[in-house]
Design a protein that fits this description.
Elements (H helix, E strand, L loop, with lengths): L1 H27 L7 E4 L5 E4 L15 E5 L2 E5 L1
Antiparallel strand pairs: 1-2, 3-4
């Protein structure tokens, strides 16, 4: 019975550590406020979080885009 109890305590503490780091990571991210929401033709909803040209006058087009972990990255 003691072995089962020790295993339970170790698993519980491991779960608490995972939850602690997950919550801290989510709140520590720098997520800008959405400027507007855009619904795509497929029904997915995107939030625009940056100004046109990414606030740089030399940016005239996006040459590549990729989605990673539910975020869209654009290369100018």
């Amino acid at each position: 019975m003691k072995v089962r109890s020790n295993t339970f305590i170790k698993e519980f503490l491991a779960l608490l550590c995972v939850l602690f780091f997950t919550v801290n990571y989510a709140t520590a991210q720098n997520i800008p406020a959405a400027l507007e929401s855009i619904t795509a033709d497929d029904g997915s909803v995107w939030e625009r979080v940056n100004v046109p040209g990414f606030d740089a006058v030399d940016n005239i087009s996006v040459v590549a885009m990729a989605e990673y972990q539910s975020r869209l990255y654009a290369m100018t």
